[in-house]
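Title: Comparing notes on inverse folding

I've been comparing how different people in this forum approach sequence design from structure. To keep things fair, I'm posting one structure and asking everyone to reply with a full sequence. Here's the target:
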């Protein structure tokens, strides 16, 4: 189902873009400024140099990689490609990343939310039971935001096998998880899209680079629908440079701080429960989330108040910071 419905997209003639490379040295084709200043030329619309580096780093062929202006671009494109506005629907777990609902609303696609089980485990049977012939997408964030837990790979693969549509697994926090990525099983599931980002572990949130990995057929659909110059030239260059950096020490420190912070938080009187996490943040249930949030803001510390989210009542989400920032948080909470 996931391919045969969308052949019309393959017939789209994308905007003709510039051709770079070869022996050409005089560029008079794109109405650009001829005065060199480092950014006077359009960027490579196919991001070949960047995808070459990503392909080597992720061990994924270039024709299975899409890069977008943050993962949010990929999320929006998935709805635009696979869902008919006002007709089709999608399923997402809840609570989860809010952009799935935002993108669904923008594209006039009904989003059916399935609450996680009481222990935040994946409700596989409920998700499949809620789907019908017009359900084109399922969204699973793993590790999940805001609950922090990663779902077992075998459950996600089972969902891909059982669902007659596209399963999108958002792995924004996968670098902090021992559960691992689904990139190595893409070849087994033609209806699987894996999203990743450079905004979390890689520390490039300001550069806005998200990635989608899928079969060549699906990635070609992304290429047909995306805007031609969606990643600017300085961003492509800077990301290629930064991908050569070793961030293993930073990830190790965050994992170490995660363990220390879990213990320290659980010993505080104002904390009712610290939920297990596979990400770089905690979901924490407290006595009064609104009061705690306001107190922390008054002390110059901001966390995310999730108390209004169904399934997260009484909870705040706390990102793991530097050791100094984490100590300041604990010292502030000890005064409550």
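Reply #1:
Here's my take.
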């Amino acid at each position: 189902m996931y391919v045969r419905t969308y052949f019309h997209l393959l017939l789209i003639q994308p905007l003709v873009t510039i051709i770079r490379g070869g022996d050409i040295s005089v560029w008079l084709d794109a109405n650009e400024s001829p005065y060199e200043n480092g950014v006077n030329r359009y960027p490579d619309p196919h991001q070949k140099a960047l995808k070459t580096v990503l392909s080597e780093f992720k061990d994924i062929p270039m024709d299975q990689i899409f890069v977008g202006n943050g993962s949010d671009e990929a999320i929006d494109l998935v709805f635009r490609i696979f869902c008919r506005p006002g007709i089709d629907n999608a399923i997402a777990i809840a609570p989860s990343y809010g952009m799935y609902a935002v993108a669904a609303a923008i594209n006039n696609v009904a989003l059916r939310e399935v609450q996680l089980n009481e222990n935040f485990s994946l409700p596989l049977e409920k998700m499949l039971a809620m789907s019908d012939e017009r359900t084109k997408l399922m969204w699973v964030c793993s590790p999940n935001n805001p609950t922090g837990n990663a779902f077992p790979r075998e459950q996600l693969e089972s969902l891909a096998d059982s669902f007659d549509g596209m399963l999108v697994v958002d792995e924004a926090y996968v670098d902090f998880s021992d559960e691992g990525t689904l990139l190595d099983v893409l070849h087994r599931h033609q209806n699987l899209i894996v999203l990743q980002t450079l905004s979390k572990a890689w520390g490039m949130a300001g550069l806005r680079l998200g990635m989608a990995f899928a079969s060549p057929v699906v990635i070609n659909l992304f290429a047909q629908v995306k805007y031609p110059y969606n990643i600017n030239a300085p961003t492509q260059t800077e990301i290629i440079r930064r991908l050569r950096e070793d961030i293993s020490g930073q990830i190790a420190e965050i994992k170490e701080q995660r363990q220390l912070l879990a213990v320290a938080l659980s010993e505080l009187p104002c904390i009712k429960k610290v939920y297990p996490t596979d990400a770089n943040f905690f979901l924490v249930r407290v006595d009064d989330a609104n009061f705690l949030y306001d107190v922390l803001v008054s002390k110059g510390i901001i966390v995310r108040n999730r108390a209004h989210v169904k399934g997260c009542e009484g909870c705040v989400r706390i990102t793991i910071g530097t050791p100094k920032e984490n100590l300041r948080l604990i010292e502030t909470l000890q005064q409550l």
